[in-house]
Amino acid sequence: MGYSAVCEICDFLNLRWIYSDIVSYVTSGVTAQNGHEWKTHRKFMETVLHNFGFDNKSMKSTILEETQHFLSMISDSNGEPINVSYPTYAAVSNIICSIAFGRRFDYNDVEFQKFINVIYELLSNQNIPVINLLPILQYLPGDIFGAKRILQQTHMLNKEFKRFIAEHKDTIDTENSRDFIDEYIIEKEKNAGLTDDDFPIAVFELFGAGTDTISNTITWSVLYLLKNPDIQNRMRDEMLCAIPTDRLPTMADKLNLPFCEAVIAETQRLANVLPFAIPHEVTEDVMIGQYKIVKGSHVIPNLSSVQHDEELFANHLKFDPLRFIDKQGKFYGQERIVPFSLGKRVCPGESLARMELFLFITAIVKKFHILPEEEGTFPSSQGQLGIAYKPNPFKVRFIEWN
Ligand code: HEM
Predict the structure, then answer these.
(1) Ligand 1: centre distance to CA 50 (Å)
(2) InterPro entries of this UniProt entry (predicted)?
(3) In a domain, 396, yes or no
(4) Domain housing 47
(5) pLDDT grade for 145, boundaries at 50, 70 and 90
(6) Residue positions in the annotated binding site for heme?
(7) Is 332 inside any structural domain?
(8) How far apart are the CA of 243 and the centre of ligand 1, in A?
(9) pLDDT tens for residues 58-84?
(10) 241 domain-assigned
């Protein structure tokens, strides 16, 4: 089928960012907008991620500190089988909490658990794309497609975010911005493009974009390493050679850990957590090759067509980190994959995400031997698609190395 035909079908089906019909307030923020509004929000998001995310020296220590909490939670399992996706989700959400709210939460904090359970459930909801394709489903009697529950959850989150925002307004020192919310309050005074109504969604967007993607990638890496003990051992051997035994890897170790980097790149390629990038509207008629994409069409970049291209990656369903190792044993060829997409809409959280993936995945392997729930029985590599592609639930045992 031709490209423009696909676009016209998407247009006909009114395919937009999957929240946009069901969650009425998501018509703002970065992801769901185009043109001038998008530029305003994107610029703001980039500045904040720059100041409080990847470019902030203390962010590296925030992630390392969170990694320690995460490892302790896993240690508490005492080698009993656990589903790693919950601890991962809690840890990754906490990093967004420190950017958004300027603080982390204890994993046992009941409010925090309630909060991330709602975000987790919303982002895993497989009905959202269906309801968005056929919005009429949300008006069926009862709640067969869970639309009312989705709305209740988004209202609950909205309320929570508004509470944080109100607290920040009461305590803000405009000379010393503490986090994303403070930045928004300060910037809103100068920039008519940022409004009170956009505010909760801007916070939600941080969670939506920055938790599911990273935590699912980490969970996939655990699954692949479980099924490939030789790769797990090779990563660990590499770390034992490059890093003193009594500490975890830091970003400064990255260059000395090419195989670990290759494992992360191969995880991103194979797991392909966002097989499709976000739908975007074409703002003027454009020709691509012989196809005319008419203004107003919705275009969805198909990232799988790169990540799973058999010509680029022979035997593409095989987990093989050596694809990213050259003859000299160096990490190479990362530009062949596009997990963060490309162009003007490229993921603004890429640097932060790369930092988190590196620090979490290497820490897990350095500290634990990952073993199956039952000797010789391995979970399937099949996943399920919510907002992101995630593995079906599985349990593993984490045995601490001495
Ligand atoms: C492994 C982790 C991540 C992956 C694989 C990922 C991937 C992507 C992809 C494929 C897009 C769509 C780009 C397009 O439309 O062409 C995107 C957009 C976006 N991502 Fe990420 N992302 C990750 C982590 C993050 C983090 C940590 C944040 C922020 C804290 C973030 C914030 C965003 C935002 C705001 C957009 C919308 C950009 C726009 O429309 O201009 N992402 N991401």
Answers:
(1) 14
(2) Cyt_P450 (IPR001128), Cyt_P450_CS (IPR017972), Cyt_P450_E_grp-I (IPR002401), Cyt_P450_sf (IPR036396), Cytochrome_P450_fam2 (IPR050182)
(3) no
(4) 3-368
(5) confident
(6) 347
(7) yes
(8) 31
(9) 788 889 999 999 999 999 999 999 999
(10) yes
Which CATH number belongs to the domain containing residue 167 in this structure? Answer: 1.10.630.10
Query: Which of 219, 347, 351, 360 gets mutated to test ligand 1 (max ligand atoms within 8 A of its CB)?
Result: 347
Contact between residue 214 and residue 356 where contact means Cβ atoms under 8 Å apart: yes
150: which 2 tokens?
Answer: 């989705």
| Ligand 1 contacts CB of residue 339 (under 6 A) | yes
**Per the domain annotation, does 393 fall within a domain?**
no
What distance in Å separates the CA atoms of residue 156 and residue 162, rounded to the nearest whole number?
10
- Taking only the tens place, the pLDDT of each residue in 317-361 is 999 999 999 999 999 999 999 999 999 999 999 999 999 999 999
The full 3-state SS of the chain, as one line of letters, equals CCHHHHHHHHHHCCCCCCCCCCCCCCCCCCCCCCHHHHHHHHHHHHHHHHHHCCCCHHHHHHHHHHHHHHHHHHHCCCCCCECCHHHHHHHHHHHHHHHHCCCCCCCCCHHHHHHHHHHHHHHHCCHHHHHHHCHHHHHCCCCCCCHHHHHHHHHHHHHHHHHHHHHHHHHCCCCCCCCHHHHHHHHHHHCCCCCCCHHHHHHHHHHHHHCHHHHHHHHHHHHHHHHCHHHHHHHHHHHHHHCCCCCCCCHHHHHHCHHHHHHHHHHHHHHCCCCECCCEECCCCEEECCEEECCCCEECCECHHHHCCCCCCCCCCCCCHHHHECCCCCECCHHHCCCCCCHHHCCCCHHHHHHHHHHHHHHHHHHEEEEECECCECCCCCEEECCCEEECCCCEEEEECC
Instruction: Extract the tokens encoding 122.
Output: 């919303």
What is the pTM assigned to this prediction?
0.90
Domain total of the chain: 1
**Mean predicted lDDT score pLDDT of the chain:** 87
